[in-house]
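=== Structure Prediction Worksheet ===
Name of assembly: unnamed complex
Input type: mixed (protein and possibly other molecules)
Chain count: two
Listed entries:
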Amino acid sequence: MKDPAPADDAADAEPRPGHIRKPVGWSMIVIGALVAVSAGLVWRRDGTAGVLEILTHDLGLFGGILPRVLAGCLLGAFIAEILPHEKVSRSLGPNSGLTGLLIGTAFGAILPGGPFTAYPVASALLAVGADFGATIAMVVSWTLIGYGRAIAWELPIMGTDFTLWRIVISLPLPVLAGALGRFVYVRIYPKGEPECVPPCSSTSSCGPRWPPSGTSPSGAAGRCWLHHCAKAAWISSISCRASRSG
Amino acid sequence: MDFVNIVPRIALGVIGSGYIAAVIPQEIITGWLGPDSGWLGVLTATIAGAATPGGPVIGFSIGAVALKAGGGPPQVIAYVIAWALFAFQRVLLWEIPFMPARFVWFRAAVSLPFPFLAAAIAMAIGKP
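=== Predicted Assembly ===
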């Protein structure tokens, strides 16, 4: 199964290359300690009956959400397989207008994976010609209406009603954020920035796109690109911009 | 299989939030994030969301605790959205390393109004 753990963005268990992803990260330890202390306090206040009552209730809840967690894992894995990454990284430039913001929003919403895929992809988009507005729309959309985190974490923990309304309310926000970003950007940087194709694209080892064509996004080549080429792609685009403006 | 890795986290989040909710004095949550806390509650929730350490398990668990303990839905919406947009740990660990730092600050700055806008929408439509 592919890595849908995507949805887990935090400190815990970042899969750096060459490191084995730890099943128990420090955030789990922190919350585990918090839960243990809380359970102890409940036990002191209400006795064993109080502890068992909460446990039974929440175990029932947990049993009910397990199938959804499994469905979320499978969905993440399948979508990561079929998404046409290369086609998606077009039509997001500064003159793409509302369409570009909508594409960015839609892309962020369907983008599989966690922060270790979303941010490198966003960075690569910036490097190959997307503007701040469309990229902001994508990043904000990924954090607010991306299905991965919502299905894997929010739905089980927060409940269906809250999650659905939270997402409905969030729907307009990525486009608004992107539009605000563009509005502010052209006033801060009125000259704009020349388009730069990163030199990385001319070398054989680092293509400008992620994942490298013909490879799986979570495979070794995809991860290798993220860690060696994503940064190089935007650093080279920045130095290119600096040399043009200087 | 990642399912195997995810299940214990979900279990801890779901079961754990019940215990945390049981020991957090309800007056604190209802006072800070309750339906009557208004815009001050939204502001508190936004700051709390940005300052929440850890991943989605902790973020959503605190949101679930706030809801279970009587927090107002608009305030909890603001909390969850602020957490999604600004959680400092994700920004420092993931966004800044992978994105141009200038983009990150720019993105964060233009995102500032949105927890408040989301809370306003939630208040206006009376949901969830």
